[in-house]
Amino acid sequence: MRGGAQLSVTDLRRSTRHPVNLPVIGEHRARGDIMLQFANISTTGFMANGCGDLGRGERVTVRLPVIGRIEAFLVWTDGDRAGFQFERIIRLDDFNKLIRAIQPGPRSRSQG
Question: Is 8 exposed, middle or buried (0-12, 13-18, 19+ CB in 10 A)?
Answer without folding.
Answer: exposed
